[in-house]
């Protein structure tokens, strides 16, 4: 009997064996409802399988992108790349069987992943976690997501690289734009908005020597990504008329038209008007995705919408690259999923690059600090308060914006660290009580960064220890120590080495350009800096080293960033005073949201010239851009004025500054498009002696020449983009059979047979 009991116990353990995918119960910026969502609510997610041959894919990526390689511009069919990296058949079988342990799921199988739609009840059964509605504490955005630890059967865990979708990740992407003019604000210093040179299409063409204004081949396809934002056709027509653009072409819109639900239109109207205005008569796809997803899902679905390989993709949204948690017990949510998500996205970016697509993204609008409420560990300059003209600052002021708090062995900046959201909410009250003469309180600026307010300087405050609900909090004056967290928060995907990051400038006139920041007349500060997780690609090493050799070591201490990592932006364009039509009237906007689609339109014009001459498209352009900067630096306008230590909420005492050559403020500078186009055509004449009507090479993957560039980054998998380049009539997908097969039942049967054999011996 003991033997039987033991075997039955082992049987139960085996059946119940599950492995964790991470999860979240508490978050500094999100709160969960007490109740679960209704059982019948429909939810969606994707299961991404581990892919194979990613080393070969990366070699191809660098070869076809390197102007010094014999394989430069010899692109591949997207389906060929999916076949190259196809997951193991066993992974498909096991994941398919597990997904069918619930009977009401709609499951679609793609080359690298499964797309699943089912009820919240069935999702909870699959992952053994309840689904609750979460609310963002600042924006009020609501999102359905799992609550608590998310698990899967141990037998399938090794076959899952990532589960993506709103159920698994919080959406933290922000658009990179601000509408102007701001309300006058002068506490304590007012930097007036520069109105000397508006970025009209005509002005941009003069400043950047853009002599082409439309595409003619009909073979250029450009794509715009949005997330819960939509454009208005009437405003695009008004923009055409105002700029004398001879076109009636509207973008091919896919995704939900959310205007009736009250979604914003400013971002989308800016992107559409300036990308389609720069490269008029170009076939353009406007893809709007649900705000609960981001770039991974957008890339994997692109070809399902376009059916043809796009030549250029532009995106003006971004999030924080990676949040370093100062205390594992404090951060009860999974951070590894963000790394896995980035890995999966980068694999698709490489596939698009190998297939001949250029991807450009905005570098961000809050300087080196970027997402201001992450570590908070940047020494703030207390003579500046709320430079971004946020209305929340109208009636308050601060002479001491941050202090240090030590608790449970962890030291953080308070209250501007995201960690502050986990601390006892009465902490600010007891600090205020001891400093009544200073009128200490706090204010949330732009719904993201919280800083202390009051009339006393930091050396006038009273600092004490407080025991609150069993936790000892030690309050001390702020001093910068890099061990308390990175002072800068790089933006993602702008920090990815597999795409082109576009920074922002101000045109003072057609020939003079400076960095766009609050202290130079803008209402944004272009993003830039160094990644915390990507090593530096070889195409920029010499340029970064040159900047490092001449940097201001006091303003940019080496302990504040990793100089061996990917640096951005790559290039810059005007991000200031763009007139757009929105809601039937003209308004002005600032932001690298404008720089990115402008660059996208420029690339479409150059691609059109290349195609007309029988050459392949540009593809991933970074190695080419840096090669040109080395060979012909006169093609770029070197921007040597500006520093990116300003943000909309605060000003940091340290940051990055501009310099001759490349710098982490404006990258290589801004291009002379006419000279750039001529150089590229001459280069293609030398490297492509045989012209082709197809952008795709028939050279087998195994015969590519030796690798000339390299970057090492840990990644394991990615998704499928449905159809390959020209033309496919439908996504390459199959509906999984509807007969459910339960993995737990199969395991139970096997174990029962095993027990029977043992008992019979």
From TrEMBL:
Q: Sorted alphabetically, which keywords does the UniProt record give?
A: Calcium, Hydrolase, Metal-binding, Protease, Serine protease, Signal, Zymogen
Ranges for domain Peptidase S53: 198-683
Task: Please list the cofactors this protein needs.
Answer: Ca(2+)
Xref: SUPFAM superfamilies: Protease propeptides/inhibitors, Subtilisin-like
Give yes or no: UniProt keyword Calcium.
Answer: yes
Q: Which GO terms describe its molecular function?
A: metal ion binding; serine-type endopeptidase activity; tripeptidyl-peptidase activity
- GO biological process per UniProt: proteolysis
Q: Does the keyword Protease apply?
A: yes
The protein's name is Peptidase S53 domain-containing protein
Detail which positions bind Ca(2+).
638-639, 661, 663
Cofactor: binding details = Binds 1 Ca(2+) ion per subunit.
């Amino acid at each position: 009997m003991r033997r039987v009991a033991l075997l039955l116990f082992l049987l139960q353990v085996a059946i119940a064996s599950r492995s964790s995918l991470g999860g979240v119960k508490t978050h500094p910026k999100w709160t969960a409802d007490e109740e679960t969502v209704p059982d019948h609510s429909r939810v969606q997610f994707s299961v991404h399988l581990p892919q194979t041959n990613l080393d070969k894919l990366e070699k191809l990526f660098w070869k076809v992108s390197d102007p010094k390689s014999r394989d430069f511009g010899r692109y591949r069919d997207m389906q060929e790349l999916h076949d190259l990296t196809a997951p193991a058949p066993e992974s498909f079988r096991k994941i398919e069987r597990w997904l069918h342990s619930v009977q009401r799921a709609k499951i679609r199988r793609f080359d690298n992943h499964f797309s699943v739609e089912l009820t919240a009840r069935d999702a909870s059964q699959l992952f053994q976690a309840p689904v609750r509605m979460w609310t963002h504490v600042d924006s009020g955005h609501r999102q359905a997501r799992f609550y608590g630890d998310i698990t899967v059967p141990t037998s399938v865990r090794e076959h899952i690289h990532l589960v993506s979708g709103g159920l698994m990740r919080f959406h933290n992407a922000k658009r990179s734009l601000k509408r102007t003019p701001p309300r006058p604000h002068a506490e304590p210093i007012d930097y007036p908005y520069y109105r000397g040179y508006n970025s009209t299409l005509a002005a941009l063409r003069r400043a950047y020597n853009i002599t082409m204004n439309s595409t003619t081949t009909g073979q250029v396809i450009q794509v715009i990504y949005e997330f819960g934002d939509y454009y208005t056709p009437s405003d695009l027509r008004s923009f055409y008329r105002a700029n004398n653009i001879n076109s009636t072409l509207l973008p091919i819109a896919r995704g939900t038209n959310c205007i009736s639900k009250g979604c914003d239109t400013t971002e989308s109207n800016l992107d559409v008007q300036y990308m389609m205005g720069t490269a008029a008569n170009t076939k353009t796809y406007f893809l709007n995705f649900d705000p609960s997803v981001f770039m991974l899902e957008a890339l994997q679905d692109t070809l399902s919408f376009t059916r043809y390989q796009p030549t250029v993709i532009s995106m003006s949204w971004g999030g924080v690259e990676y949040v370093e948690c100062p205390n594992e017990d404090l951060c009860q949510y999974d951070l590894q999923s963000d790394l896995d998500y980035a890995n999966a996205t980068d694999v698709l970016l490489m596939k698009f690059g190998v297939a001949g697509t250029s991807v450009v993204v905005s570098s961000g609008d809050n300087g080196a600090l970027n997402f201001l409420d992450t570590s908070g560990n940047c020494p703030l300059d207390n003579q500046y308060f709320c430079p971004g003209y946020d209305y929340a600052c109208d009636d308050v002021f601060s002479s001491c914006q941050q202090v240090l708090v030590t608790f449970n062995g962890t030291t953080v900046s308070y209250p501007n660290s995201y960690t502050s959201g986990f601390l006892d909410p009465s902490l600010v009250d007891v600090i205020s009580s001891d400093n009544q003469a200073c009128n200490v309180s706090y204010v949330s600026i732009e719904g993201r960064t919280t800083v202390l307010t009051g009339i006393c300087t930091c050396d006038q405050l009273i600092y004490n220890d407080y025991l609150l609900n069993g936790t000892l909090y030690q309050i001390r004056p702020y001093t910068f120590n890099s061990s308390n967290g990175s002072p800068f928060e790089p933006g993602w995907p702008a920090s990815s080495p597999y795409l082109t990051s576009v920074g922002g400038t101000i045109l003072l006139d057609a020939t003079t350009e400076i960095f766009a920041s609050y202290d130079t007349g803008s209402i944004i500060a272009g993003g830039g800096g160094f990644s915390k997780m990507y090593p530096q690609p070889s195409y920029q090493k010499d340029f970064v080293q040159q900047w490092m050799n001449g940097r201001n070591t006091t303003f940019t201490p080496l302990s504040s960033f990793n100089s061996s990592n990917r640096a951005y932006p790559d290039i810059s364009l005007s991000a200031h005073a763009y007139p757009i039509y929105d809601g039937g009237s003209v308004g002005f906007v600032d932001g690298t949201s404008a720089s990115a689609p402008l660059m996208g339109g420029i690339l479409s014009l150059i691609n059109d010239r290349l195609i007309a001459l029988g050459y392949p498209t540009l593809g991933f352009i970074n190695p080419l851009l840096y090669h040109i900067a080395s060979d012909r630096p006169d093609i770029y306008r070197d921007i040597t004025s500006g520093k990116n230590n300003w943000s909309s909420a605060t000003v940091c005492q340290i940051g990055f500054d501009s310099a001759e050559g490349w710098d982490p403020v404006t990258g290589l500078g801004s291009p002379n498009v006419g000279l750039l186009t001529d150089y590229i055509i001459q280069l293609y004449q030398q490297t492509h002696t045989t012209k082709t009507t197809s952008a795709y090479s028939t050279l087998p993957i195994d015969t590519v020449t030796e690798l000339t560039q390299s970057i090492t980054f840990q990644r394991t998998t990615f998704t499928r983009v449905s159809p390959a380049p020209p033309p496919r009539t439908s996504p390459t997908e199959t509906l999984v059979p509807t007969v459910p097969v339960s993995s737990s039942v199969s395991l139970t049967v096997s174990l029962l047979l095993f027990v029977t054999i043992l008992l019979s011996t």
